[in-house]
Amino acid sequence: VLVGFHEYSPRLSVILEALTTQGAALASLEFATSPAHQINYYVAQDATQEWRMALHWAAEQVRADPSRCVAVVGAELESNVPLVHRILAQACQGTEHSAPLAWNVAVGRSLSDWPLAHAALSWLAVLAACQQAEPLTPELVGRALLAGGCAGSLSERHARAQLDAYWRKQEITHLSTAEFNAALNHYAPQLAAAWHSAWGLMAAQPAQQSAADWIDFFRQWLMALGFPGEAALDSHSFQVMEALDSELGRFARQSPVLTSLSLFQAQTLLDRMVAEAIFQPQRDPKARIDVLGLLEAEGGRWDAVWVVGLTDEVLPAVVKPNPLLPISALRRANAPRATPERELAWAEVVFRSLQETAPILICSYPRYAGDQLLRPSPLLHDIADEYTPTPIPPPSPAEVEWLSDHWGPPLQTDQLLKGGVNALDTQARSPLWAFVKYRLHAQGLRHYARIGAANKRGSFLHAVLERFWQRFTRPDKDSLQDFLAQADASTQLAALIDDVADQYLDGYSAQHRALECERSLIILQQWLEVENAREDFVVHSIEEDLAWSAGSLQLKMRVDRVDELADGRLVIVDYKTSATAKTLLSSWVRTRPIDLQLPIYAAQVVEQGAEVGGLALGWLNRRSPGFIGYGDMGLGVEGIVCRDAKNQDELPPWSQQIQQWQQAVAQLAEELCSGYAAQETTHPDDLRYCDARPFLRLNEAP
């Protein structure tokens, strides 16, 4: 007996023909239905308004008669699920005179997206990686730590999150098994004990075994790890556990064909199978409002139905024939999505079934999608009566009392704020951001470090140049010229780069490391030619730390290099490795200067009695290597801007500029210590890399 088929696939047709040949009798069961006696159409301004009208209509129907069951059918429901839940929460909330309404949104998600299944798969992935005796990635291990579902899942959840954040902050790209075990022992001792116990089960496992044997082991291993954790299972979690157990059983039943698998192969195949399984919790029995897709609505029965999104691109669907097969062959086979005729016939079947789902049917479509004008489905042309919905009363805004308070508590005399110069730089960009970051210690969670990331490349090139200048007894231009004159200069540079790579490119593959070293050699050779074109200089210091304090503020800073010119003036150099060189002059000369590392260092050095002649950014890239900076006249460094007749109205004399920086730095330090936390931003780009935007409340104003 066949139920619910509009057409038969080629495979099913062959099976049915074989059954008929063997003498089987085939029958088709069709339920008696009646078409809707009232069909209306509605045109919304956009999809948001359409969903809002439909869902509020559903809530009104149930409130008017609690015995009624209504449905809202969405042609593109999956892409609007967050919007649907948000509108339903508002439309179905309880009032003084009515209880809240229950609803059901029939959209399944991959089983692997549900927390407990995600946790189980994540820990099995860590197990497989450890068994292969290869370095672990913080991203792989961090996913399992954050998922929980293990011993200490509740009591140690903060410690596990701290461990994950530590790996991100330290930009760790890989971990050995020993390092992972040591980290667990330090941060999460309960989990560490369970992990060691579970890992002990590996000793009894052969390298290759069947799918069923691996599933038995996975169950034992997860149980030893403490899965599903300390939390009590609610209804949804219990259903997820049942669905996961079902998938484990389904995988075990593949043993006749999966007779010999490694642990990694079994884990990979199981992960794929669970990801392909769609799971949806059971329907709330009290729900009188159903929200579901077109295909899910077929065969259902309600008292009233509203179908949204019926444009001519949805019903019938846009044709998408297989590009690898001839159109003529697809047409002969009547393949789905192949021809307009095929899609129109299918759309008519679907629309006819929708008309049989309820005695009252409303069909709607949005007039616009952004700036695009949409057209209704041709199946709506015969509907003559337009539906006029009840207007939705706009929500009455709550009265907001604004209190303008730009000050937090000041630093106490015994309270020190330590860090780098970024504290003052952030204060200059946004005092509120600085307060959030350095007083409240709130900041965004960093991404996991990646091999080949720009910051890794920058650190590598910095270290190469530091090692290069340290090789000279007197690191000056004469030493540089003598080195470049040597026949094997390139060989020496390559050896130096390879030596530094042992420390900074650890974890890179041999091919990746070779490419990075080759790139660095080219950049270093270009850069040394730029240095060789300068007038005489001596490298005064390399990677030198400098302490700076003001009141309760104690900051440390480090610059890449300080050069001393022939006349005794100093040029402070900071290496940059971005692909495109840019000047920071506009950032340095404004009222609240930013990018303050070099200006602060210059101001501090001047206070110590030295004479600073300029600030220079050394751009280490293949496209435009060279210096860009700002300073006094006569430095002999191409690319450094100085005050002249053209810009004398914009730039002050150099000595006055140093004084302005000293005053600006002192003012920023005073603001930070006194708790000044106003949301003031000179330029929108100042917040480009802000990781605390929600705290700034940029879109709220009295």
Automatic annotation (TrEMBL):
Q: Which domain of life is it from?
A: Bacteria
Domain (PD-(D/E)XK endonuclease-like): residue spans on this chain: 423-693
Q: What protein name is recorded for this chain?
A: PD-(D/E)XK nuclease family protein
Under InterPro entries, the record lists:
DNA_repair_protein_predicted, P-loop_NTPase, PDDEXK-like_dom_sf, PDDEXK_AddAB-type, Restrct_endonuc-II-like
